[in-house]
């Protein structure tokens, strides 16, 4: 597996991929977070090496996204090497929420014919692909901002960015 660190307006993202596709796009808020991420990958006995050149496409897409340009990352192949089968189903269903739109935990559960809305939230809490699997677009049934590992302020920032409002 290969990785790089990408600078974004609000911090850094750890990107990692296999020859099959992108496996991780994880926000890094400090060096211990980076150590944890690398450690969890190495625990799975997956070799990890830095290779910035392999991420030209991803860098270009994230740049466009953070410039406020419509980008849904649909052109990227994914290699979901972690997660349970249920988590993967939830992640792939959330990936269908279009840029600039939102869905709810309940609507995802209903599309998956699953009654547990909370389990959808738990699965999205384990999302390894920040923004690419747009869990920030998932809201409570009443439209409220709920549950986002990076905080509701960051979730709101991403939603404003996609709506074309100033994300400052």
Question: Could you give a quick summary of the protein structure above?
Answer:
This protein has helices at 31-43, 56-66, 85-94, 105-111, 117-125, 152-163, and strands at residues 2-8, 11-17, 22-28, 49-50, 103-104, 138-139. The chain has 168 residues and is α/β, with parallel strands linked by helices.
Structural class: alpha/beta
* N-end to C-end Cα span: 34 Å
Can you tell me the CATH topology of the largest domain? Arc Repressor Mutant, subunit A
Number of strands: 6
CATH superfamily of the largest domain: Winged helix-like DNA-binding domain superfamily/Winged helix DNA-binding domain
Give the fraction of residues assigned to helices. 25-40%
Largest sheet: 4 strands, mixed
C-alpha-based Rg, rounded: 15 Å
Domain tally: 2
Q: How does CATH name the architecture of the largest domain?
A: Orthogonal Bundle
Strand percent estimate: 15-25%
Topology at a glance:
Blueprint: E1 2-8, E2 11-17, E3 22-28, H1 31-43, E4 49-50, H2 56-66, H3 85-94, E5 103-104, H4 105-111, H5 117-125, E6 138-139, H6 152-163
Parallel strand pairs: 1-4, 5-6
Antiparallel strand pairs: 1-2, 2-3
Helix pairs in contact: 3-5, 4-5
Description:
The protein has 168 residues and is an alpha/beta fold. It has 2 domains: 2-66; 85-163, Winged helix-like DNA-binding domain superfamily/Winged helix DNA-binding domain (Arc Repressor Mutant, subunit A), CATH 1.10.10. It has 6 helices and 6 strands, in the order βββαβααβααβα. The chain has helices spanning 31-43, 56-66, 85-94, 105-111, 117-125, 152-163; strands at residues 2-8, 11-17, 22-28, 49-50, 103-104, 138-139. The strands form 2 sheets. It has a 4-stranded mixed β-sheet with strand order 3-2-1-4, with helices on both faces. Strands 5-6 form a two-stranded parallel ribbon. α3 packs across α5 and α4 (105-111) packs across α5 (117-125). It starts with a strand and ends in a 5-residue tail after the last helix.
């Amino acid at each position: 597996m290969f990785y790089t660190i990408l600078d974004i307006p609000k911090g850094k993202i750890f990107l990692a991929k296999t020859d099959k596709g992108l496996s991780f796009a994880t926000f890094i808020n400090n060096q211990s977070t980076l150590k944890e991420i690398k450690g969890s990958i190495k625990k799975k006995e997956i070799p990890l090496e830095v290779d910035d050149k392999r991420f030209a496409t991803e860098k270009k897409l994230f740049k466009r996204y953070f410039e406020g340009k419509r980008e849904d990352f649909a052109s990227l192949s994914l290699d979901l090497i972690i997660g349970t089968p249920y988590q993967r189903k939830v992640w792939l269903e959330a990936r269908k929420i279009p840029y600039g739109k939102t869905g709810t935990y309940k609507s995802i559960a209903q599309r998956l014919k699953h009654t547990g809305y909370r389990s959808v939230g738990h699965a999205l809490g384990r999302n390894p692909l920040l923004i690419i699997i747009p869990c920030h677009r998932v809201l409570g049934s009443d439209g409220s901002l709920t549950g986002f590992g990076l905080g509701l302020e960051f979730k709101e920032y991403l939603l404003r960015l996609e709506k074309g409002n100033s994300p400052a």
